[in-house]
């Protein structure tokens, strides 16, 4: 049986993704280089808020109950976002989004999946995973509520708007933003969310076991599934895995390339060479094809 484990290292192997403090140090190093002279100590406060929320230590919210959209995933996405942002700033120095928008983006990354968290006293559902369908809008509302409590009320509405760029069911072009710089940062966040999860070394197993569990809890999978109109439910774990190529090639791919204007390429600028996220995704696609071939061979010999 596959055992859940937080990703211990990021895609490069250098950042410990089980430690929010290590993540914050990495974020500070990236942002200080891009925006010298700016005080980034607020990142520590953001990290403390994140830990309180996800560890069940916040007075208003229970801890994370989702196995796929867990704390490790959020740390991974937040680091990927900062790298894409830095790559964009390096590539287009005359069109910098500036430190305020950068901070709003980091805050949005930390909170983009907080919509899976249940409020204390919530008895409508037995697990936060049941909020899969509405977690983006819930996360945006949570951002508006909690950011002012740590002195970031001025960016709370902005961070809330950015979170909506992680909603794969909504065309990014339809989202309302203040200006094109905000839209660019939203594209970076949406790209980071997709890149980080698809690049995880155990992406396929996490989909098979944990993403399926979340879909089942929210009525999108299983024998009692009640998906929205136009969506075919996932009938089994194998069904989800067999349909994963469709997600990668027909949803995530066009969203990254077209809707987000290829913003994932800024990782190559940041690293000054190959994009390790893409390399990891290609490896996962190869493994997915291998597993499909094994299933086909087993079926043929049955």
How would you sum up this structure, described in words?
This protein is mainly alpha-helical. 57% of the residues lie in helices and 0% in strands. It is built from 12 helices and no strands. It has helices spanning 20-34, 42-54, 71-91, 98-111, 135-146, 156-163, 180-198, 203-217, 237-242, 244-259, 266-271, 276-301. Helix 6 packs across helix 7.
The computed structural class is mainly alpha
Cα gyration radius (Å): 19 Å
In the CATH classification, which architecture applies?
Answer: Orthogonal Bundle
Instruction: Count the domains.
Output: 1
Head-to-tail CA distance between termini? 24 Å
Shape: globular
Provide the residue-averaged pLDDT: 94
Q: Return the CATH topology.
A: Catalytic domain of cyclic nucleotide phosphodiesterase 4b2b
- Major beta sheet, specifics? none
The CATH homologous superfamily corresponds to 3'5'-cyclic nucleotide phosphodiesterase, catalytic domain
Unreliably modeled segments: none
Q: In CATH's first tier, which class applies?
A: Mainly Alpha
Helix content: 55-70%
Question: Total strand count, please?
Answer: 0
Strand content: under 5%
Order of helices and strands: HHHHHHHHHHHH
The tally of helices reads 12
């Amino acid at each position: 049986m596959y055992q859940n484990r937080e990703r211990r290292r990021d895609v490069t192997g250098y950042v410990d993704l089980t430690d929010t403090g290590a993540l914050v140090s990495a974020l500070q190093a990236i942002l200080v280089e891009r925006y010298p002279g700016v005080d980034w100590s607020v990142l520590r406060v953001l990290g403390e808020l994140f830990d309180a929320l996800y560890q069940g230590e916040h007075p208003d919210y229970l801890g994370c109950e989702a196995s796929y959209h867990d704390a490790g995933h959020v740390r991974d996405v937040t680091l990927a976002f900062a790298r894409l942002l830095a790559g964009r700033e390096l590539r287009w120095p005359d069109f910098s989004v500036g430190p305020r928008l950068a901070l709003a983006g980091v805050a949005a990354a930390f909170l983009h999946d907080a919509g899976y968290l249940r409020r204390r006293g919530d008895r409508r559902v037995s697990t936060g995973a049941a909020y899969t369908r509405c977690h983006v809008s819930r996360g945006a509302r949570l951002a508006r509520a909690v950011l002012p409590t740590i002195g970031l009320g001025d960016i709370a509405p902005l961070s809330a708007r950015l979170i909506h760029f992680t909603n794969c069911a909504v065309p990014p072009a339809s989202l309302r933003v203040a200006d094109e710089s905000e839209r660019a940062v939203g594209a970076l966040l949406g790209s980071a969310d997709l890149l980080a999860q698809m690049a995880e070394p155990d992406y396929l197993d996490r989909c098979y076991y944990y993403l399926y569990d979340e879909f089942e809890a929210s009525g999108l999978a299983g024998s009692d599934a009640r998906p929205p109109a136009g969506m075919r439910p996932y009938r089994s774990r194998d069904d989800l895995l067999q349909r994963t190529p469709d997600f990668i090639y027909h949803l995530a791919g066009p969203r990254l390339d077209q809707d987000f204007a290829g913003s994932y390429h800024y990782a190559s600028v940041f690293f000054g060479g190959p994009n390790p996220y893409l390399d990891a995704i290609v490896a996962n696609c190869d493994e997915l094809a291998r597993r499909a071939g094994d299933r086909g061979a087993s079926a043929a010999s049955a």
